Each structure stands twice: as C-alpha cells, then as structure tokens.
C-alpha cells in the first residue's frame, strides 16, 4: 500500500513540473497577432469595438459548416480583426444549446452573433429578444421579416443563379456524352441527391436542372431525398440508387461527401456544392457552386461599426461575390465549359437572364402565369404572396431564403415522403 | 547448484482483493486519479497540439463556470443528465441492461411536443401542462414496459430489445418532424407556441432552468429513499444479486422486472418532458443528445447511489461544457476536448480497481 502512495506522490510531483515547464514554454505565442494594421477601406472605419460570434451546427468536417468557417476567416483577415474579436463556437445543436450559446456570446461582449443552421432560428430570436443591443444574424432563416425585431436579421444568397451556372456545366457534359455516342439524347438523365422537399432544395435542384436544360434540351432528372441534411451513408446510397436508375451525372444538395465519393468510385461525373471536392474526386468533379459568406460578414461588421442598420433580409448575388463557382476541373468537364459559364454569368450581371423565366419551364404541361408562395412562415403553410411578375418567378425578392417550391415538368421525385 | 529445493518463483507483484478501504484513502486514490489524468492530458496536449495545457485547463474551467449564465447552464445540463441517470438506475441495479433510455426519453419528448402541437387549442390552458406531463410519462413507461414484458414472458435479450426501441423512437420523431415541419418541407418542427408560450414551464424567479433543477433534485432524493428504504427498492437489489434467491424468498421476479422498467421508462419520459417543456420547446432527433447512454456511465460510476450520481453527472457535464470552450478559445477541434474527457473518465473508472484490489509487491528475498 505504501508503495502505491509513493508512486502516486512521485507522479504528482512530476506532473506539476511538466505543467509549469510547458507553461513557460509557450505563453508568448498568444500575444503575437494582437497589433496588426488594418488594410484598405477598413482602415477608415474604427473596428476596434467589434466582436463577432459565430455559432456553427457542426465543425469543419461538414462541407456546409466549413464553408461558413472559411468565410469567417476570410472576413477576419480582410478586415484585420484580431483573434479576440472573432469567437467561433462549433457543434451547437438546434436546441436550447443554441440559445444558451447565443446569450453567452452576447454577455461575452459580442455585438454581432451569427448562426449558420436553419434550426437555430427560433433560438436566435429568443436570444435577440433578450439582448436588444446585440445584432443577431441568421443564415437561411425565414422569420426576420415577420418577427419585427430591430436586431434580428436573415441572410441568404441567390445561390439559384450559381446552381444554374453549375447546371450549364452539367448540360455541356451531357452533350459531350451524346456527341461521343455514350448515350442517346433521350438517355440524358441526371440524378440529384436532396435533403428534404424543402423550398431551398427544390429551388436549388430546379435551377440546376434549368441550367442544364438551357444547353441540353432533352435532359431529364431524378431526385432522391435522404431526409437528413447530413448523413454520409444515406447520401452515398441515394447516389448509388440514382446511378442504378441510369442517371449519367449526379449533383447533390446535402452536406456530406457521400454523393461525391460514390460518384468517384463509380466514375460518374459529379457537380458538387459548398466547395470543391476535387481533392477527393479528381476524375469526376466538374465544378461546384457555393455561397461565399464573407461579403455578408463584412457587410454586417461594417454596418455595426458605422452604427447603421443591418438589412432585415439580405440576399447576396454574383455581383456582391456571395455566389461563386469553383474552378472548372478540365479533366472531367466538357470543352468550353468555362466560357459558357462566363457568358451566362455576364447575362446575370446585366439582368438579361432570369433563372426562373416562365417561358423556360412548364408545370403540368402549361406555363405558369401566377403563383402564390408561402413567404410568411406559418404552421398552416398559407400561400400569401404573388411571386410571378414580369415573366419570371421572383425568387428571394420577398425574403432572402428561397421559396420556389414548384414541381416542374422534366424532374421526377423518387421519394416525396421527406 | 547446492540448493536443490524447487524454487517457488514469486512474481514481482500480485493482486489481491481488498477487504475494505478507509474513506479518506479512497478519496485520496480518486483525487490521485484525477491529477494523473490531468497530467496525461497535459502531456498529450503539448505533444499533439503544442498548446499550453494550463491555457487548455483554464478554458475548460471558464467554459463550465466562467459566468453566471454558464453556471446555470451547467446545472441545467447536469439536472437533465442526472434525471436520465436516475431513471436507468433501478433497472441497472436489477441487472436489467436498459440501454434504451435514449429512446424512452425521446418518446417522452415526442409525446410532450405532440400534446403541445395538437391540444393547445383544444384543452383549457390549466390542463395543458398536466396533460403533457402525463403523456410523456405514459409514453416513456410504455417504451420501458414493452421490452420488460418480452423479457418476463419470453426471456428475450433486453439489451438488444431496448437498443432497437431507441431507433423506433428516433424514426417516429423523424417522421413527425417531416409531418409537422414549419416551414413546409424543412424537416424541423421549430419552437412550439413561440408567441403565446403555452405549455412552456414557468421561469421561477426569472430563472429559466430553476424549475427543472428543483424537480430533478426532488427526484434524486425520492430515488435514494426508494432504493434504500422501500420494500420495492430492496426487491430490486435482491433480484439484481440473484434471481434464484429472490424466488426462494418469495419475490415475484417477473413482477419486479416489469414494475421497475415501468418506473425506469416513466422517469425517462419525464426527462423528455423537462427538455421539451422546460428548455427546448421543440423536439428533434437529437433532443436527448446522447444522455440516454451517458447516463449509464453516470449511474455506474456512482455505483447506483443517487446521491453520488449528483457528483458524477456534474463531473461529466462540467467536462462537456468546458470542452466547448476549449475548442472555441484554443481553436482546437471538439474531438480533442473529447479525448481529454475520455482520458479523465478512463482514469476515474480505472481507479476503482485500486479501491477494490491492492497490489502486493514481492517481498525482498533473504530477509
């Protein structure tokens, strides 16, 4: 028994020594980045009072969250914020944990708190009511315009334009396959792995489809839903299901690497989302659209620094740099893809191209002339706003989050249950 | 060579069961284990991340109790974990391996949410919360009763059965998340009654979580008394020690199994109620957040003593809360703080070995 204590005592003493030694060794590192000069436009603005907190559902292992985290770092560098001014909290569930974290950040001195997941919204609103002097900004939410809080804001991007551009790349790839005699024009069928039958997903796959259709008129598409925003196995299985149904090209709106890796394994071309997957899929990755959140971050930080109000709904586009496409992977893409994308992008910028122009698609065989969308979120899903005007479905104009939920012709939903 | 006796070769040390250990020695060993665990974590921190371990530890403490709010959150989360741990304890004490607490609590949460969604407009406001409470307890009890019935009637394997019941509960929640989603298709129910706060547990003295904490405190004492002083508690211990003995002294084992699992499930259901009505005001697949499994560890670490469980659940939640802060302030991935939590729990469990056994070193030869 005594020996056990002797050993214990020895270990105790040793642990103290090591702990203190380590303390002396690394303490100077932390102060290094404190006084860095700000650059460019930000230099005129006093950003020293800014402290922004980011709440993320997962961490960088999720492509969705990584996209937000990268943007936070980008904005931090662009504005010259210090480590102390940017607080990132990851793995916060869509539960009271989100409220606790948001309130904690507010008490910690943050004047902006941002949350990235749809299910965070109600908890952000709860915190916003409690801390009226702090700005709460939420990506993908739908309630800011009806909630009427001065300090609660929604943001999104017109990612449907990005999807459309990515769809062009997909359509050109199909054309290449047809030209090479690999498939006939009738066999040009794409597959799409979706999360839920939610407007954001429907808007995304429809614009992707329309982009492909603009260059490959015979294209059709099957959509398989997983019932989860992040389920690697389910996404992989959905991609395989689609391939077994003779889909010759796959795209996805779900956040894991499930679909892209399944495509790489099977050698089926993939149009990705949230960022480039070229590292894991060098032979099949064509291009990816993604939302760059850095412009929004810079916008809200500057607005708070200037004492200006943040827009209730903010929807960034190609012009703002919010909607971006990755580099085209020449190894997998069809020839001329980059040029076709650039041409369409120019038309978006000068306003001559509309993704949901009503003469480019039909619903039940007829062109749409009127559509009431559920823009103001309520449990009864009341269709409350006329969204077709001037010959197009005006996506993201009445609120930032998408509300295009029309099932158009040419797209088959394999499992509507989710 | 001269010595031709067969030499009895004694190993360097051997292990023998300890008869008893003085309480202060026991606590000293436990303290030693924690210090040792911190030491190992510190070494690992330096080797793997190059961070200063003292920074890491101080973030851990700050994250758990750095502000008033964090202390409240710490107690709230402890109360919730403790509630589930108390729920599984009678079953485990009976050696009924109920690993279905996650599902039992989740189905309780689902029942609570369902009542809030469907009956808010139907019931008089006075009756809403009692109905939610009854529904959650009934749902949890049912989720506990089903495997118990099968165990009692057909001696099915309760571990697999309760585990499978978890998935059924999760899928039920998934189904209704789609069915009752707001907005349409989002797969999220969202906060229920967010405008009129009906069915929300009241905030006592302006403290959101106080009521939950008080309720769990009462349950803790109740469970302690029940297990230690009631006849039923005694029956649970006997069935757990030996079913044959129990039968011999006239205990109806099947009845005890079924009754205990109803209690276990009902308490889990209550935990689900507290999570939905008291804190989250919504239900998702992740509402229970793994507490159903962590609770088993809490219960075992405390050797099924409800009062010790307060400490063990506090320890685990303290580590979890601190872990979030570590990843935030040191820029380390959450997985790293989970490694540290794992190390500390490993040492705490490991030190129980030294409390139950002692190591005897070989006596010096030629004494």
Describe, in plain words, how this protein is organized in 3D.
The complex is a heterodimer of chains A (418) and B (367). Chain A is built from 11 helices and 17 strands. In chain A, 37% of the residues lie in helices and 17% in strands. Chain A has a domain at 43-158 and 295-302: Rossmann fold (3-Layer(aba) Sandwich). Chain A is α/β, with parallel strands linked by helices. Chain A has helices at 2-26, 63-79, 96-107, 121-130, 144-147, 159-179, 199-215, 232-244, 258-266, 294-306, 337-350; strands spanning 52-55, 86-89, 112-115, 135-139, 152-157, 189-194, 220-225, 249-253, 270-273, 285-291, 313-316, 323-325, 372-373, 385-386, 388-389, 392-393, 411-413. In chain A, a hairpin with a 2-residue loop joins strand 15 and strand 16 (392-393). The model of chain A is unreliable at 16-40 (pLDDT under 50). A 7-stranded mixed sheet of chain A has the order 12-10-9-8-6-7-17, sandwiched between helices. Chain A has a 6-stranded parallel sheet with strand order 2-1-3-4-5-11, sandwiched between helices. Chain A has a two-stranded antiparallel ribbon with strand order 13-14. Chain B is mainly alpha-helical and 367 residues long. Chain B has 2 domains: 18-51 and 332-367, no CATH class; 78-330, ABC transporter involved in vitamin B12 uptake, BtuC, CATH 1.10.3470. Chain B has 13 helices and 2 strands; from the N terminus they run E-H-H-H-H-H-H-H-H-H-H-H-H-H-E. Chain B has a two-stranded antiparallel sheet. The mean pLDDT of chain B is 91. The chains are: A alpha/beta (418), B mainly alpha (367). The interface between A and B is large, with 62 and 52 residues.
């Amino acid at each position: 028994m005594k020996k056990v204590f002797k050993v214990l005592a020895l270990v105790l003493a040793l642990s103290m020594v090591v702990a203190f030694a380590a303390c002396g060794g690394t303490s100077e590192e932390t102060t290094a980045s404190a006084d860095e000069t700000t650059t460019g436009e930000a230099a005129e603005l006093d950003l020293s009072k800014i402290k922004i907190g980011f709440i993320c559902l997962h961490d960088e292992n999720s492509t969705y969250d990584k996209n937000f985290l990268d943007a936070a770092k980008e904005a931090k560098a662009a504005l010259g914020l210090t480590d102390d001014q940017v607080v990132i909290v990851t793995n916060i569930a869509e539960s009271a944990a989100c409220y606790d974290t948001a309130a904690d950040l507010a008490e910690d001195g943050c004047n902006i708190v941002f949350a990235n997941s749809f299910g965070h919204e109600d908890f952000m609103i709860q915190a916003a009511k409690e801390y009226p002097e702090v700005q709460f900004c939420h990506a993908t939410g739908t309630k800011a315009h009806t909630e009427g809080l001065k300090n609660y804001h929604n943001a999104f991007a017109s990612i449907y334009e990005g999807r459309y551009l990515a769809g062009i790349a997909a359509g050109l790839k199909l054309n290449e396959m047809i030209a090479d005699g690999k498939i006939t024009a009738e066999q040009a069928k794409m597959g799409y792995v979706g999360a839920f039958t939610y407007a954001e997903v429907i808007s995304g796959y429809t614009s992707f489809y329309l982009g492909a259709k603009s260059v490959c008129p015979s294209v059709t598409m099957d959509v398989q839903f997983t019932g989860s925003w992040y389920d690697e196995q389910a996404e992989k299985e959905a991609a395989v299901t689609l391939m077994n149904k003779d889909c010759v090209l796959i795209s996805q709106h779900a956040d894991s690497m499930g679909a892209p890796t399944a495509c790489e394994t099977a050698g089926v071309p993939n149009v990705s989302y949230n960022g480039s997957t070229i590292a894991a899929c060098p032979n099949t990755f064509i291009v990816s659209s993604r939302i760059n959140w850095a412009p929004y971050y810079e916008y809200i930080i500057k607005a708070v620094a200037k004492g200006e109000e943040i827009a209730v709904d903010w929807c960034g586009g190609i012009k703002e740099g919010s909607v971006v496409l990755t580099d085209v992977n020449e190894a997998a893409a069809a020839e001329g893809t980059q040029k076709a994308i650039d041409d369409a992008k120019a038309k978006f910028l000068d306003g001559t191209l509309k993704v949901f122009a009503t003469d480019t698609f039909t619903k039940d065989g007829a062109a749409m002339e009127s559509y009431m969308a559920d823009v103001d979120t309520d449990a009864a899903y009341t269709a409350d706003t006329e969204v077709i005007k001037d010959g197009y479905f005006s996506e993201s104009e009445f609120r930032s989050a998408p509300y295009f939920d029309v099932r158009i012709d040419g797209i088959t939903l394999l499992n509507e249950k989710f | 060579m001269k010595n031709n006796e067969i030499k009895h070769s004694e190993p360097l040390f051997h292990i023998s069961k300890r008869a008893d250990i003085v309480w202060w020695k026991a606590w000293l060993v436990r303290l030693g284990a924690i210090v040792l665990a911190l030491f190992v974590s510190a070494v690992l921190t330096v080797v793997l991340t190059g961070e200063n371990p003292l920074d890491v530890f101080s973030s851990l403490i700050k994250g758990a109790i750095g502000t008033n709010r964090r202390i409240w959150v710490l107690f709230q989360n402890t109360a919730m974990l403790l509630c589930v741990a108390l729920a599984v304890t009678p079953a485990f004490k009976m050696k009924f391996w109920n690993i279905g607490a996650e599902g039992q609590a989740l189905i309780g949460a689902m029942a609570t949410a369902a009542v809030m969604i469907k009956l808010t407009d139907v019931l008089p406001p006075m009756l809403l919360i009692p109905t939610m409470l009854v529904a959650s307890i009934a749902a949890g009890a049912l989720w506990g009763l089903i495997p118990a019935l099968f165990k009692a009637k057909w001696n099915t394997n309760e571990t697999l059965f309760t585990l499978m019941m978890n998935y059924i509960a999760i899928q039920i929640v998934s189904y209704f998340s789609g069915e009752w989603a707001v907005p349409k298709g989002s797969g999220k129910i969202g906060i229920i009654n967010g405008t009129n706060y009906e069915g929300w547990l009241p905030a006592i003295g302006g403290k959101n979580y106080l009521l939950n904490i008080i309720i769990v405190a009462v349950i803790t004492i109740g469970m302690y008394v029940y297990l230690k002083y009631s006849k039923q508690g005694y029956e649970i211990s006997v069935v757990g020690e030996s079913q044959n003995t129990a039968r011999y002294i006239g205990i109806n084992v099947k009845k005890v199994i079924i009754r205990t699992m109803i209690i276990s499930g009902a308490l889990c259901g209550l935990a689900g109620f507290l999570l939905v009505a008291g804190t989250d005001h919504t239900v998702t697949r992740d509402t229970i957040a793994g507490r159903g499994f962590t609770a088993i560890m809490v219960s075992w670490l405390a050797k099924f003593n409800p009062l010790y469980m307060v400490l063990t659940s506090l320890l685990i939640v303290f580590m979890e809360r601190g872990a979030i802060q570590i990843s935030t302030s040191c820029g380390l991935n959450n997985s790293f703080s989970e490694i540290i939590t794992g190390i500390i729990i490993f040492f705490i469990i490991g030190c129980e070995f030294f409390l139950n056994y002692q190591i005897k070193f070989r006596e010096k030869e030629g004494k």
